[in-house]
């Protein structure tokens, strides 16, 4: 059974990779390696797996990339309009044509919990529906926390929350080989952790939707840094 690609923070990856048996990796191993390699910085074959995935779904080329992501963005804007108005969700178009959905933990998780709030599930269901209609993308789910608590605890909590979102997408029919899960803990704050307002902004899950581009297939599996 295929597993969702899971990429934790740098220190966790370096430890895990030393003991990992490559035969246990999913069949799109090179694509997994590209995602993990982007986070951990070790040498991997960054071409083969991504190209195979791109060939399977049909990689995008030229002006088709922008049009494909334009259409997907319009659908996302329509289903997220209410949450954006309430500042619970932010939708951005990135320079590399990716879409970034920033989700506040206040609407998605209770304090110290990785269980999705039931009230948030219909929104995720709508997002999953759009993702299914646009299969030529890779979805990165990245968890973040504030600075309260230990480094290891925050790393694990951010990973579990990101995994919960990815698991929900998978349960709604998004294929698992398109999902990359990363926990970044408190390492990438978007605001100061000295105030409650800042800590609230830092507690979040980011969803990146990256197009699979012809000739650059493995790039779709590289998880962006926050505000990269």
From TrEMBL:
GO terms for cellular component: cell outer membrane. Residues 95-213 form the OmpA-like domain. The keyword Transmembrane does not apply. This is Outer membrane protein A. Pfam families: Gly-zipper_Omp, OmpA. Residues 1-18 form the signal peptide. It comes from the Bacteria. InterPro entries: Bact_OuterMem_StrucFunc (IPR050330), Gly-zipper (IPR039567), OMP_bac (IPR006664), OmpA-like (IPR006665), OMPA-like_CS (IPR006690), OmpA-like_sf (IPR036737). Keywords: Cell outer membrane, Membrane, Signal. It is found in: Cell outer membrane. The keyword Iron does not apply.
């Amino acid at each position: 059974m295929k597993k969702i690609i899971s990429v934790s923070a740098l220190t966790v990856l370096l430890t895990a990779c030393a003991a990992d048996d490559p035969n246990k990796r999913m069949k799109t191993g090179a694509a997994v390696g590209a995602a993990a390699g982007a986070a951990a910085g070790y040498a991997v074959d960054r071409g083969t797996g991504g190209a195979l995935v791109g060939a399977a779904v049909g990689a995008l080329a030229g002006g088709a990339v922008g049009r494909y992501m334009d259409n997907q963005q319009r659908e996302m804007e329509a289903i997220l309009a209410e949450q954006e108005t309430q500042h619970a969700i932010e939708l951005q178009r990135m320079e590399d044509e990716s879409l970034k959905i920033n989700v506040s933990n206040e609407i998605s998780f209770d304090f110290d919990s990785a269980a999705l709030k039931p009230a948030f599930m219909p929104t995720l269901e709508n997002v999953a529906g759009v993702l299914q209609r646009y299969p030529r993308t890779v979805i990165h789910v990245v968890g973040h926390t504030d600075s309260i608590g230990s480094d290891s605890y925050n790393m694990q909590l951010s990973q579990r929350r990101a995994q919960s979102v990815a698991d929900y997408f998978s349960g709604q029919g998004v294929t698992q080989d398109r999902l990359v899960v990363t926990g970044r803990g408190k390492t990438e704050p978007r605001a100061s952790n000295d105030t409650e307002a800042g800590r609230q902004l830092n507690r979040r899950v980011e969803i990146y939707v990256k197009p699979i581009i012809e000739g650059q297939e493995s790039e779709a599996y590289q998880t962006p840094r926050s505000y990269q």
